[in-house]
Design brief:
448 residues; 24 strands; four-stranded parallel sheet; Rossmann fold; alpha+beta
């Protein structure tokens, strides 16, 4: 039995002891989440009663590989910006290309980013890069605080030492570092720019928590929507609130569906009167076709040896779906024919990470459905990617006053700040059905 297996088994045994048969402690955890605004769509952001544990060896190996791949991804981004033909292979909209051409005033690819990771024992695969500031960055601090002092975790800590992994402190430090590096000297006021669903007037809970944290540390912060912004005399503002740092929580594509390139936010960004995090250039990384370029030997073959090794070992083979020849395992293949013949090993995913379009898992699709999926993937930008199976584990969940054990899929997100990993968060999904509401975040602790 591994250290991790032993830790999980011990935690599960603790929950079966007489001291924890009364589930008042579980109810208290959910009440604390409610009082601290850790809610999404009326439900606690964490549906489970067990933290996700990561060993130090797992974490250090994952962090080293993630930082190496960040360097390789940034290399591809710079190549694409300098090579129109390469940029075209990423299937950006014309307006997205125009936004990507604007210098944000700082050289970094992303202030914050994370990699969707399959982490199982000593092996891991990174199958997507995201430059959004996920809810995991924001909720990590509060979730770990709630669970660290919860009765079962206190009992668990008598034998196992745990280290917390937060997020907001490092996020604020990184924001200020980039702001000052861009030559800004004025004390910054911060705006978190989000879209809101129709008939919803209040900000997203994670954005309210982020704003509250920044205010507590002396930085005036407001959560605003794009239509509330105005730009006059070189100042971006929402009413009387002037803005120096914009935390962009809207994708470029969503933004361009509603506004044009003369919007106050774009004008302020173009004239560098605000520092935007992450910049519109980061949208390049949001395209899944970036992994198609990353796993193309013709492009990455000249990268440093450490980056080539990380790509080879930790990035699943990915290609933009289109007719023609490509390479697979060093051999030339007809891409569409290969996709059709190897359904069980492949997944078709929209090129854009923010979209209403469906992904198609070949192993869950029959031949007729796969044929239809391939046609869909040729009409709109899609990538085909080698199958990555997320690890599964049983987690205790608390619903309707009862505790039960459910099989959950586990996805780990190492948090990158300016290309360096500092902590990680865990997203979980009910593995037993596609229609469950049991999904969200699990508090993540380092076993030390």
């Amino acid at each position: 039995m591994t250290i991790l297996d032993d830790a999980v088994a011990r935690y599960n045994r603790i929950l079966t002891t007489s001291a924890f048969r009364d589930l008042g402690w579980a109810k208290a955890i959910q009440e604390q989440m409610g009082s601290r605004h850790l809610m999404a769509n009326g439900r606690p952001v964490c549906p489970v009663l067990r933290p996700h544990f990561v060993t130090r060896r797992q974490y250090e190996s994952m962090a080293k590989a993630a930082e190496t791949l960040y360097s390789a991804i940034d290399r591809v981004r710079q190549m694409a910006l300098a090579t129109p033909a390469l940029l075209s292979r990423m299937e950006l909209l014309p307006a997205e290309k125009m936004l990507a051409s604007i210098d944000p005033g700082y050289p970094q690819m992303a202030v914050t980013s994370f990699l969707d990771t399959q982490l199982q024992n000593g092996n891991f695969q990174f199958y997507e890069c995201d430059t959004d500031t996920s809810a995991g960055f924001v909720y990590a601090d509060a979730l770990t605080e709630i669970f660290y002092d919860a009765p079962p975790v206190k009992e668990f800590r008598k034998k196992h030492k745990l280290a917390k992994m937060g997020g907001l402190k490092k996020l604020l430090q990184s924001l200020l570092l980039v702001y000052k590096g861009a030559g800004k000297k004025k004390f910054p006021r911060i705006a978190i720019v989000e879209f809101r669903p129709p008939f919803k007037n209040s900000p997203a809970p994670e954005h309210m928590l982020m704003a509250e944290y920044f205010r507590q540390h002396g930085y005036p912060t407001e959560v605003v929507t794009p239509d509330q912004l105005e730009y006059r005399n070189g100042v971006l503002s929402r009413g009387d609130f002037g803005i120096e740092i914009v935390i962009r929580k809207v994708s470029a594509q969503e933004f361009l569906f509603r506004f044009d390139l003369m919007h106050p936010l774009v004008r302020a960004y173009r004239e560098k009167t605000v520092c935007m995090v992450n910049s519109f250039r980061a949208e390049i990384v949001q395209k899944r076709s970036l992994l198609s370029l990353l796993t193309d030997e013709m492009i990455a073959g000249s990268f440093p040896a450490a980056e080539r090794k990380a790509i080879r070992e930790h990035i699943p083979w990915t290609r933009l779906v289109m007719p023609g020849k490509t390479t697979r395992n060093g051999k030339t293949v007809d891409l569409l024919e290969y996709i059709q013949k190897h359904r069980e090993k492949l997944v078709l995913r929209p090129n854009d990470t923010v979209t209403d379009m469906n992904s198609f898992r070949g192993w869950e699709t029959d031949d007729a459905g796969w044929e239809k999926a391939i046609k869909t993937a040729q009409r709109s930008p899609y990538v085909v990617q080698e199958r990555v199976d997320l690890p599964r584990a049983p987690f205790p969940v608390y619903q309707f006053g009862k505790m039960e054990v459910r099989e959950m899929e586990i996805e780990v997100h190492p948090h990158l700040y300016l290309g360096h990993v500092d902590g990680c968060s865990t997203e979980i999904h009910d593995a037993t059905t596609n229609f469950s509401t049991l999904s969200g975040l699990a508090p993540t602790f380092l076993l030390v």
